[in-house]
Amino acid sequence: MRFPIPNTSARVQDVTDHSPGPRRAPGELLRRLRLRHTTDPVTHVEHVPARAGEPVGWPGWTPEDLREAFARRGVTAPWRHQAEAAELAYAGRHVVVATGTASGKSLAYQLPALSTLLADPRATVLYLAPTKALAADQLRAVAGLELDGVRPATYDGDTPRAEREWIRRHSRFVLTNPDMLHHGILPGHAHWSGFLRRLAYVVVDECHTYRGVFGSHVAHVLRRLRRQCARFGRTPVFLLASATSGDPATAAGRLTGLPVTAVTEDTSPRGGVTFALWEPPLLPPTDSAPDADLVQVRRSALRETADLLADSVVEGVRTLAFVRSRRGAEVVAANARRALDEAVPGLGDRVAAYRAGYLREERRELERALLHGDLLGLASTNALELGVDLVGLDAVLICGWPGTRASLWQQAGRAGRSGDEALAVLVARDDPLDTYLVHHPEALFGRPVEATVLDPANPYVLAPQLACAAHESPLTRADLDLFGEGAKEAVDSLVEAGALRQRPTGWYWRHRERPEVDLRGEGGAPVCVVEESTGRLLGTVDGGSAHFLLHTGAVYLHQGVSYVVDSLDLADGCALVHAEEPDWSTHARDVTSLSVVSVRSYVDAGPVGLFLGEVDVTSQVVSYQRRRIATGEVIDTRPLDLPARELRTVAVWFTLSPESLTAAGVEAADVPGALHAAEHAAIGLLPLMATCDRWDIGGLSTALHPDTEAPTVFVYDGHPGGAGFAERAYGTAAAWLRATRDAIAECGCETGCPSCVQSPKCGNGNNPLAKAEAVKVLDVVLTNLATAGGEAAVAEPGAGPEAVAGPDSGGPEAVAGPEAVAGPDSGGPEAVAGPEAVAGPDSGTGPDSGGPERGEVLPRQDDRAARPAQAAGAPPA
């Protein structure tokens, strides 16, 4: 892959020699970007002031060779928070440094780790990064210090097998990721015994990314690592680095199972940031449908971001655009290239896309091109969100709310990393949460970031991890304390299922093959995408997304080139495609049903009930639509024959009595639409409260659910056993539903639009929806919850579906009929309870989208997501 440098106009500076060149002030750049619209798209501008640094002297134990190496890199003294964290770690205390982007967290762990390696020629260090890009960046940093005897090396899936033996035997600073630790190092611990018996430090970088099911798995992988080290008499010190987060010490302690001290005061210098909230303009009604009642929609955030990226490149501004989905990143890059080539032929070569699923060579070339200035613009998924040192970036565009405040500031911090002033722009998507945030800047600025949510006690995580541990070496009773709450019950279930055999000395793994456990909950091994005519491997798609992205007939994008899927073989993990440029996009649809298994806790609020409990969700992709890219017109719907997928997870739901709805002025005929609208908006707003994104959650609403015998709205985690998001929603229900109610009520539309209650993913075509009645529904819920004081009543253990009908909920005779509609806004699995209706996560982005889009993280509603537990023999009842 090459990025030629064309002859460009005078407006474009050549940055290939790394010279900074004249920088346009962020305020001036923002003013020029706003000129393209007749109405100002900026709803708020926040100026984050610059901050001076607070340097201190090097700790007395720092070797002179290391001080000189840092000095060659331009570091003459550490900042106070770096020295504080390093002192704690060197003294043997587990520590997490949780400070802002570009605050120098790398030096905080490099200082004690490298000092120990230089002082003790036998000591080793293990570094864990959530992405290969970050590990490669840290390898460059450590290798660049040129310290004798350290011998840093990356050990991941891209490492040639010929190099792996050398790394095991000779490297003293191994950089890897949790997946490789889980799949390669721990199962082969005998080959790593020399490294592990001398392990001094374990560095866990960007630990705030380990949340939900993935974080829960990683927590147990770290416990398995501690267990193997203990066999050699080693207790390594854990050094964790995190973006600013709520209660980092508790989160790091839950992740490692150890007491952790937090260093949170950021004493590094920071350049000022101009942060703009940008709402794309409304599109005018089309000539073909000029009805006055037609719901107006906003210009796609993808196209808006593509235009802003192109304008920034024309201005000579090195810019990184973050896009939520893989397809979205491709679309933004393609549209920006097209616009640039129209303005200056060849200038489009200075823009590219970056995402997971690219081959190693493509990723490395893109990173090199951006670092060396061959590229001026890059559209990336969150694969580049983490600490890769992208020196010299002037601006960051964030296409849609990234899911958490931590991610927002992490992405915004990619610009201005050399201390210069920078511009960050959040471009709102046309959905309830984004619309709420750009009109409520107080929800973004001056607010603490979210606490990381993970649940190591999740039985769907704990059982397969214990199986992995038993495969590595027999489990003992002391190990059960290491793995924490629920470990004994999980082991008993593994014995009962025949996966483990209990003997006087412990529990032994009974099978020859090792357990198959997917840390990221992505529903199995990746599916390879192969061009049928040439046999060329284009990329990979995670197994959980394959039903939606690689079904027969699906349009698949790779580096701006469109392919159509000819066949999908799930058993072999392969999709065959051919190159084609159709004028339509594809949108998968599924049918979903939900049943209540048990209730954990509930709030009795008179005519309103608020519940938390376990549910079973069954879904199946049954068809897909083809839609015209230019107009969004549905061409046809084609059937699919894919297996159903089942999910046992955790949900939060609320019920209302029919009498309370009637008293609030909601007619029986409007109940389905009111619940449907409230559910769309509620799912869209939940990421404001929990560290999830909309792809992590799903939902269902119904005017009469057979288990609750009442009008009900469900919101559930899209991962087996839950991921902690439903619990967070239950605990913050009043604030969550208040924000949902305000987002609907404050929207200026009359009957509902994508900014409040419509969802472009809704398999029911956003019908029925009753915006005004949704506000009344939420008013009833909020009023009664406030009256009840929000006191949670814990249900009897093992309470079954008969316990879920809300107080005073009324019986089925009070409801006009069992109409049921559902579907999360812009995200997770759309659910429809009625047998005649269908719904599904829609890969399109709505009118004027410029092409299909899918989220990076999808709800894993398939049997393969639960298969590790089944392989371990212990899916809990």
Structure, described:
The protein has 877 residues and is an alpha/beta fold. Strands 22, 23, 24, 25, 26, 27, 28 and 29 form an eight-stranded antiparallel sheet that branches. The chain has a seven-stranded mixed sheet with strand order 1-9-14-13-10-12-11, with helices on both faces. It has a seven-stranded parallel sheet with strand order 4-5-3-6-7-2-8, sandwiched between helices. It contains 25 helices and 29 strands.
CA-based shape: globular
Task: Calculate Rg over CA atoms.
Answer: 27 Å
* Weakly predicted, low-confidence segments: 1-21, 288-293, 790-877
**Overall pLDDT score:** 81
State the oligomer: single chain
Discrete helix count = 25
Distance between the termini: 51 Å
Query: Percent range for helical residues?
Result: 25-40%
**What is the strand tally?**
29
Strand content: 15-25%
Structural class, please? alpha/beta
Summarize the main sheet. Answer: 8 strands, antiparallel
Write the layout of secondary structure elements.
Layout: H1 26-34, E1 42-48, H2 64-72, H3 80-90, E2 95-98, H4 105-119, E3 124-128, H5 132-144, E4 152-154, H6 161-170, E5 173-176, H7 178-185, H8 193-196, E6 199-204, H9 212-231, E7 237-242, H10 248-256, E8 261-263, E9 273-278, H11 301-314, E10 319-323, H12 326-343, E11 351-354, H13 360-372, E12 377-380, E13 395-399, H14 405-412, E14 422-427, H15 432-439, H16 459-472, H17 477-483, H18 487-496, E15 500-503, E16 506-509, E17 527-531, E18 537-541, H19 543-549, E19 555-558, E20 561-569, E21 574-579, E22 584-605, E23 608-628, E24 634-639, E25 645-656, H20 658-663, H21 671-685, E26 697-702, E27 712-717, H22 725-731, H23 733-745, H24 771-788, E28 793-794, E29 820-821, H25 863-871
Parallel strand pairs: 2-7, 2-8, 3-5, 3-6, 4-5, 6-7, 9-14, 10-12, 10-13, 11-12, 13-14, 17-21
Antiparallel strand pairs: 1-9, 15-16, 17-18, 19-20, 20-21, 22-23, 22-28, 23-24, 23-25, 25-27, 26-27, 26-29
Helix pairs in contact: 3-4, 9-16, 11-12, 15-23, 16-18, 16-25, 21-23, 21-24, 23-24
